[in-house]
TrEMBL record:
Residues 621-670 form the DUF4357 domain. It holds the Pfam family DUF4357. The lineage of its organism: Bacteria, Bacillati, Bacillota, Clostridia, Eubacteriales. This is DUF4357 domain-containing protein. It comes from Faecalibacterium butyricigenerans. InterPro entries: DUF4357, GmrSD_C, GmrSD_N. Residues 423-557 form the GmrSD restriction endonucleases C-terminal domain. Residues 16-236 form the GmrSD restriction endonucleases N-terminal domain.
């Protein structure tokens, strides 16, 4: 017999103006994890909001759902799911209030952070959101009372919880974004109105804790819910002539069986990216219908895209590239690509493999370069927006140069000299202080560069240990060998002082003298280690600053050789050029003085414009088409615009902040490049 949920469950979507109103008083229960969003999630949220604000003038933006324990007649609500978004949105409103010049606007923003109170309604003056007890006084003082300058001046070292550190860093990210994107109160006001009236959260609430947890579990479970591909399938198959429907249905279901339902959904996500070349702003179904189904027939979609893309996806995902030559090398590189913990590299890899299935030598070249690019983006901690943008330029070049060969290969897959410099600086830095995923990848990849293939990098138990201990005992040999405290701090967390192990950390063994540590902690029964890096350390007779310095230089040379990090002065695209792509457009250009911007011949504009494109840009676009400067949506000659924003808006067919959207291949925008 099925269980019956006795408590009433309600679900309703609300704009942010209602979410942050006297209807709700949010409390984070003590058993919840602390606030944990980093600059990556916060930056991605702002970019998504700002991008939607720029491109969509009537659609609403869906921020997801939150789950509350709440009685319908009571404002008080325990937050079961949604703490991260509510906290980050509160920081965003604080930054808005701080940024406005108009004092009335500042006060209006503050009411979304704090309830002013209403004696007649029996509502006390208090914050709208209460974090965990240890973090709430800090959050209230700096965010809800909008003391952001004071927050920014705090030394991160004195912040005693991770949540406080995240609050400070995320506030800084949002302040920087607002300073770059908005120059006056009118623009800030329009963005605020968009946030309050067109950005929605779905609130699912029940007065029962048991029901709330059940709802949360169901919402986050991996059931057989209707996927976007199921809806797209009905549209595509239904558009075929009846006599073809059965055959194509069997072909479709065969592909789905090959990948699994979730895997097939990923194929569609990557296919959308190949067509759109931008991060998803609406649902997969909406964007697939708008950008894919409108440009290809149902037969073309299945035969020319889904079949080769699905086969490529399976080979890439499972490291199962098959060829007479170079298959093992390609699959070895795919192993590392799949360890980067994101799939943003998949769309260009799928497109390339589908278009060059029989050129194994070129495939090897491409996958080797792609692994280097993906490693750079991971190691230097680039966020999802930067990653998608970086791969976008590769997709743009692949589309414009479908006949590239190993003799004349793709250029945008190469690292620029600036990227190589950033890569090397990061690798030479404090590796141990990075996230576990990043530092493990770096150590394992380095060991693989130096290995003969005997080591395995799939162990569930993998730890990284310091050779020179983090806290050497006062009485012992370590301080005799390393008497300079600053020198110890400098080398402690760098890669030369780190070794990989396949055992649990032993806090006592960490502080052994070097000889004892090697014998009892680093080496196996045979006196060696399966890892080359650890074996090298075991073979060192002493561990002194000179040994570590030489080792650091040697390991840096290995990285430089294997990942080809020495400057070439031959980047994929001229480093003085700025790129732009989106909505079917792709363009190159550069600033020619303080204000003007030159767009190069051959640049392509979007095929249409959005309703929000200012009328003066609509007219200018028509003029350029009318006089032949733009022919068949392509610039027939170079053209100078009065500003980077004018050029970007006319090319993209939507409102655009050119200083932010024109970017170099490595992601540096016009604004970041000093223009």
């Amino acid at each position: 017999m099925s269980s019956v949920v006795s408590s009433k469950i309600t679900g309703k979507e609300y704009p942010l103006s209602k979410i942050f109103s006297s209807d709700f008083e949010y409390h984070i229960p003590g058993y919840q994890r602390p606030y944990a969003w980093t600059e990556d999630e916060t930056g991605a949220l702002f970019d998504d909001l700002y991008g939607f604000f720029q491109t969509e003038n009537t659609e609403n933006f869906f921020l997801g759902s939150i789950v509350l324990i709440k009685d319908e007649q009571n404002r008080y609500a325990d937050v079961i799911d949604g703490q991260q978004r509510l906290t980050t949105l509160s920081i965003l409103f604080a930054v808005l209030a701080d940024t406005f010049d108009n004092e009335d606007y500042k006060m209006d923003c503050k009411k979304y952070l704090q309830e002013k109170g209403n004696v007649l309604e029996g509502i006390e003056a208090q914050p709208r959101l209460f974090l965990k007890e240890k973090d709430q006084p800090f959050f209230h003082k700096y965010i809800q009372n909008i003391q952001l300058d004071a927050l920014g001046q705090l030394d991160p070292a004195v912040l005693d919880t991770e949540a406080k550190l995240h609050i400070q860093k995320n506030c800084a990210v949002l302040r920087e974004s607002f300073a770059e994107m908005f120059s006056n109160d009118d623009d800030r006001l329009r963005f605020t109105q968009f946030l309050l009236t067109r950005c929605y959260l779905v609130v699912v609430s029940t007065p029962s804790q048991e029901s709330a947890f059940r709802i949360f579990t169901v919402m986050n479970s991996r059931g057989l819910d209707l996927l976007p591909t199921d809806i797209i399938k009905s549209t595509v198959i239904g558009s075929l002539p009846k006599e073809k429907q059965q055959g194509y249905t069997e072909k479709w279901e065969g592909l789905e069986e090959l990948t699994g339902r979730d895997g097939f959904n990923e194929v569609f996500t990557h296919t959308r990216t190949i067509f759109v070349k931008e991060r998803q702003k609406k649902t997969l179904r909406e964007e697939f219908e708008e950008y894919v189904l409108k440009t290809v027939s149902p037969e073309q979609l299945i035969d020319d895209y889904l079949v080769p893309y699905t086969n490529a996806y399976v080979q890439l995902k499972n490291c199962e590239f098959t060829a007479t030559h170079h298959a093992d090398e390609v699959n070895g590189l795919l192993f590392w690509l799949n360890k980067t913990n994101n799939s943003d590299w998949m769309p260009p890899a799928i497109k390339f493999l589908a278009e060059h299935p029989n050129d194994s030598k070129y495939v090897l070249w491409f996958i080797r370069k792609l692994e280097r690019l993906a490693s750079y983006l991971l190691v230097t901690a680039q966020d999802v927006n930067h990653r998608v943008d970086r791969y976008k330029w590769l997709l743009v070049e692949m589309e414009s140069r479908p006949d590239s060969t190993l003799a004349d290969p793709l250029r945008n897959i190469e690292l620029t000299d600036w990227e190589k410099e950033q890569f090397q600086q990061t690798l030479d830095g404090e590796i141990y202080t990075m996230t576990a995923q990043r530092r493990n990848y770096i150590i394992q990849r380095l060991d693989s560069f130096m290995s003969d293939g005997g080591a395995s990098y799939n162990q569930k138990l993998f730890t990284i240990e310091h050779v020179l201990p983090q806290h050497p005992p006062v009485h012992g040999s370590w301080l005799e060998l390393w008497p300079d405290e600053q020198e110890r701090k400098y080398w402690l967390n760098r890669i030369a002082n780190l070794v990989p192990l396949t055992r649990q950390r032993n806090s006592a063994a960490q502080n052994y003298g070097f000889a004892t540590k090697k014998e009892k902690y680093f080496q196996s029964k045979g006196g060696t280690s399966s890892y080359v890096l650890t074996t090298q350390v075991i073979n060192e007779p002493v561990w002194t600053p000179d040994v570590v310095k030489k080792r650091q230089a040697m390991l840096s040379d290995v990285f430089a050789e294997k990942w080809e990090l020495n400057p070439s002065r031959q980047s994929g695209t001229d480093e003085g050029l700025f790129l732009l792509a989106g909505r079917g457009s792709s363009a190159m250009g550069y600033p020619i003085d303080k204000d003007c911007f030159l767009v190069l011949k051959g640049s392509r504009i979007a095929p249409d414009v959005t309703s929000g494109l200012p009328q003066n840009y609509v007219e200018q676009r028509k003029t350029l088409l009318g006089i032949g400067i733009i022919q068949n949506n392509v610039f027939a000659e170079d053209n100078v615009f009065t500003s980077a924003s004018a050029a970007a808006s006319i090319i993209l067919g939507r409102s655009s902040n050119g200083r932010r959207e024109w970017a170099k291949l490595d992601g540096r925008t016009l604004a970041q490049s000093g223009h």
